[in-house]
Amino acid sequence: YTTLRMPPFDFLTLADSEIIDACLAGDGRAWEALILRYQRLIYSIPLRYGLPESDAADIFQAVCMLLLENLARLRDRTRLVAWLVITTRRECWRQTRQRRRAADGPDLALIENLPGDDSSLEDVFSRLQQLTLVRVAVQRLDSRCRQLITLLFYTRPQPSYEEIAGILDLPLGSIGPTRARCLEKLLGLLKGLDKLLDLDLVL
Prior knowledge:
Helix content is about 70%, strand content about 0%. The protein has helices spanning about 10, 15-25, 30-50, 55-70, 80-100, 105-110, 120-140, 145-155, 160-170, 175-195. The longest helix has 23 residues, at about 80-100.
């Protein structure tokens, strides 16, 4: 798939519900921001199922179309992550059923070996989902904490505490305590976001 151009930074820092509001208001940049936020999650699911990249690209496009068609009908916009996981999984199943009807020989054997139960899916996607949630949670932090966490964990090469203090205009001795407070806030956000991954959802 093709990586989308980076939309304005302010869209990337908005909550899903706010981006959806902007999408429904007709702002194309908001739609780009929404897809950019979750394109890796969507695209990875069919690949994890063992489907070829051509099928993964088709499923990615289908899920994006379903999201666009159903955006205004989502009952709980804070549960978008779970909606995307479920919808993408359904599209994978639909694709495998279509291939099963048309397949013979090695293609059929490939489909028969796909993981299909919920426990297998949970094991396969657990790390990717957690990484996605961490990224979303970081974007929901206040500006100071978001900048600090980004500098500490997402910047390479990692700056020293002295450099971080200079960038954020903070006393050097306050970096450690501020880091602890920001990580506590991040943990609180993650606990809330983690509830989005239960399967009690959507259309």
